[in-house]
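User: Could you check the structure of this?
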Amino acid sequence: MMMGKFVKQSNTGLKVLQRTLHQQVVAKVPQNNPRETSLSSWTAQHISDFSSKQLSDRVTYRSKRMILDILGVGLIGSTTTFSKDMQHFAEVTDRISNHEPAIIWGTNNRRTGPAMAAYINGSNCHSMDFDDTWHPATHPSSPILPALLALADFLPERYRPSLQDILVAFNCGVQIQGILLRCSSQSKNIPNRLHPPAIVGVMGSAAASANLLGLSPKKCLHTLAIAASFAGAPMANAGTLTKPLHAGKSARSGLEAALLADKGIEGNENILDMESGFGAFYPDYDPQTLLDEVRVSENLILHNQDIAIKSYPCHLGMHWAIDASLQVRKQVSEIYGELDVNFVRSVEIFAPKSKYINRPIPNTEHEARHSFQFTAGSALIEGMVSPDTFKFHDIVQERKDLYTLLRKTSIINPDNNKPCFDTMFVDVIVTLKNGEKFSARCKEPYGHWRRPMKDQDLKNKFLANSSLLPVFNQAKIIKLVSKMSATHTSSELSNLMST
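Assistant: Sure, the predicted structure tokens are below.
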């Protein structure tokens, strides 16, 4: 495999060794003036210069939470049939053994090449739609951390980056995604055409990988140009097994873009400034808006914009419907006890209009994760939504009560309820056959960036998702991520991801 020769042929290891010196002189290097530069060159310089000095305490706290969460999400994703199919694919097309460099999370030390490891682990992170979500809409962590840990595993032991290096590169990748999303007003809405993790995700993975390798601004620029040619995926595959691949291919492609740029492959140096460049993904793309913004911005975007950590393994929009339904269920149970679906006349869900999350009777678990009707009905009947909620083959035979309720469920799309994770709301109204009505509104579900998940609840989520690991490994991962220090190497963390 071409990647296997990289360590012997490249001076990447030396560049990683030089990272500390490079970061020491960053403050002395004149920075590009946004008034006199292109977005492409400014961003490349930003990636190359990005260091721990730019991480505020708030950014560090938030990104550590993201890292712990995505490790757990990737681990539970590794238990799925989807993940087993991905590994079989790798066995056929690549190599898997305990002698390869990069670990496949959640396995008994099964390893493969860095690109394939990033692909599998990144896909696993999105396989249950359990990964974090940002505004404007994207899943920022799943394309980045799998790429960074796979790349770190790939580097020679003496050049292995520290966990602080991983933290810095991770935040660099998040920052670039946030920058690019803010160049389009269209990106603020729930996507209906292209899936953001396949667009900004690959750019974030590329930026993070380039930063970890210590690439020069010139090579960072070419990394972005190469990555842009790997970007894009249609929303038509939402609710299918292909959607998780979007995160995985972004993790892989971003990593490969940085390695290719380091080897001398070049791309268009105005990639972020052209309508036919990154602008091809957004009709209202406006790089000048971003340049105007960075002139006055002092903090990283993550400093001012928190992340949504998901409570339920499904599309973020479902969380509004679930929380509202749980409130309604509580109201009904206080009077009647358990909800009797045969005593229900109708269920009305008032939600934003979006075709791909309006699925009256889903046929697969992946469609169910994108169904207002399924998730609201499950919450009403079971009083909870968990990974087990989505395990079924035939909803008519296996979930008869739910099927009965789904046939009584309708969605109404109010004109004043826009498909935007920052402003949307969901009302759930249950009308019983005796005419009684029970209703609840959710404006922001638990875990939303304005209603962050408590640290203990996030820890509990990680422990539940990582239960396939030995207890010692779980505890050690929590401790390492809480510090992400310069005294611990990346391999100390990645080695704990094995069963």
